Amino acid sequence: xxxxxxxxxxxxxxxxxxxxxxxxxxxxxxxxxxxxxxxxxxxxxxxxxxxxxxxxxxxxxxxxxxxxxxxxxxxxxxxxxxxxxxxxxxxxxxxxxxxxxxxxxxxxxxxxxxxxxxxxxxxxxxxxxxxxxxxxxxxxxxxxxxxxxxxxxxxxxxxxxxxxxxxxxxxxxxxxxxxxxxxxxxxxxxxxxxxxxxxxxxxxxxxxxxxxxxxxxxxxxxxxxxxxxxxxxxxxxxxxxxxxxxxxxxxxxxxxxxxxxxxxxxxxxxxxxxxxxxxxxxxxxxxxxxxxxxxxxxxxxxxxxxxxxxxxxxxxxxxxxxxxxxxxxxxxxxxxxxxxxxxxxxxxxxxxxxxxxxxxxxxxxxxxxxxxxxxxxxxxxxxxxxxxxxxxxxxxxxxxxxxxxxxxxxxxxxxxxxxxxxxxxxxxxxxxxxxxxxxxxxxxxxxxxxxxxxxxxxxxxxxxxxx
Amino acid sequence: xxxxxxxxxxxxxxxxxxxxxxxxxxxxxxxxxxxxxxxxxxxxxxxxxxxxxxxxxxxxxxxxxxxxx
Lengths: 467, 69
Fold this sequence. Notes:
heterodimer, A: 467 residues, alpha/beta, Amidase signature (AS) enzymes, 2 domains, eleven-stranded mixed sheet, two-stranded antiparallel sheet, 15 helices, 13 strands, globular, B: 69 residues, mainly alpha
């Protein structure tokens, strides 16, 4: 049995697979080592919803057999991963982070799990999340069946939501990558708070079949990992059309770094005030340095503005209306009262009263938002902004603090269905910050190229919390 | 004790969820009466409606979803 250095737990997907190919360790040994770490340290961050050790070791045996026969399936073959607990995996519970669903079982894996299994990846666990992905508008970080997501950088702070466990598990080196989901901010927030790289794909690029619906027109599944390149490898494996998801675009992502655009030819739009007035004071020096790092790459920064719409009320109306239908039974049965957060309970109850005309109005304005974003991306190739205006909030702090400046790119980008990448870009005190890059629909290769360039010039994504 | 896939039953899972305690003391007790939370959420609904009403829409603008036969 080889001894595993800490390095391997924070290694890239390519480094980990290289270790298996070079016979430094087998896939079974690697899987057991990651399972040990996830089971031992996961509870420390309230990150673990369920260990899948037995099925993982079985899969790892199969993968070792494939490697012995030189059957190479994908860059993810043999590499362990975990998923947010709203993604179904047959044989174990899928709790959606909520007590009313604590005993819920599915007979079939979600489409993304099937795709990763086909690629030879090894699923080792389910990760905690905010109950029902927080659609009801929760007020406290402890709105989860597994307890509040704890930030590996400072255990008195939140890991972000709603993909809380995915954020802290990747940051603490418990899995090389994880899948999260985003309706409005649930990949970008924990990625920024935990200092990891998160990719929210274009709406419709990744199938949501077998995943908890919160808002059919907003939900996306995406990777959370240590680098932009790792996100690209995972996205390539999970993307693609699916008849079981009516929102599927039928398109697939192919990672083509060899055809990456020359970054010095691209224009990066940004609003300078987003990096000053738009963020809390203690975060300004780090964001200023992040912009300097972007400039040092020779990239063209162009001042621009996001279109002006009531993004937050729009996204809240759409989520509320669609969630109201998804969880109608939960409210009617009274089981909604078993949720942990009182504000969330009230939000789901009130969602039953959203008027059709309000929902349709929000969806019609959304069409205008899409058109305005299309115009924005005629002028600039990518958009840069802080992923969030603050570092992670304290576990004890209510999340509806009016002093926190809003970050419009999160609701705006989700309404437009465009992809975005959160990149670690510095610290405020001991807590990480994230720089967001967004692009037009299906511009993931361009985003990844920009992310890789930024990460080649900085080392924020390589920093490790004191695990 | 964390549940392992081999020892699961629906009943044991439901029971396990009852006494669940996180590894750190969570946020302070939520003392706001439920009625207040409902009132706050109703108020938010009104605020969203008012914000959406400020956007001018022509009759030609269709919603941002498409039904395909």
